[in-house]
Predict the 3D structure of the following.
Amino acid sequence: DIHGQSYSLEALLNQTSYDPSTDTLIHVGDIIAKGTRAGSKEVLDYVVEHNTVGVRGNHDQKVIEWRGWQEWIAGFDGGKEWMERVETKWQKKHGSFVGQEDKEDRLRKGVEVDAEFIDSFTADDDEEVSEAGKKKERKKQDKKFWALVPSSWKVFSEHYWLAHDLTPQHYAYL
């Protein structure tokens, strides 16, 4: 398991005299997550560039599931805007997950979507929505989209943000 540890991967490949022109690199899954966001990106860049083969690990799978969900939501009328708004709101309130250097574990684990959480992310405190009718409509939209998050998933987890960051090439590789 590489788990986004790009420096460890590089050190191991150097230690084993890995030559991408003659050797085939095979991984056994979990190439991302548990490291830093930047490290996971670097590992994905490497495996895509070097035509590495392997199996998908459970962390890789969770990222794929989140990415599929994000694309699905973005396909709804107002879905992309809703995601951008709640992501911004989350980051303003809690900061952003960047990886293992995060001091607060909740930034890695994310949160379960329950009634209390949904209420904290509805339009009532939205400064940009001033008219009562618009607030009511925004609140209804918020609840509609939050209801589409699978109950066992943790929103704004490291898997969520890694999925958010995937390039099309990374997504296709995973």
Q: What stands out?
A: DSSP finds nine helices and four strands in the chain. Residues 58-74 form the longest helix (17 residues). The radius of gyration is 19 Å.
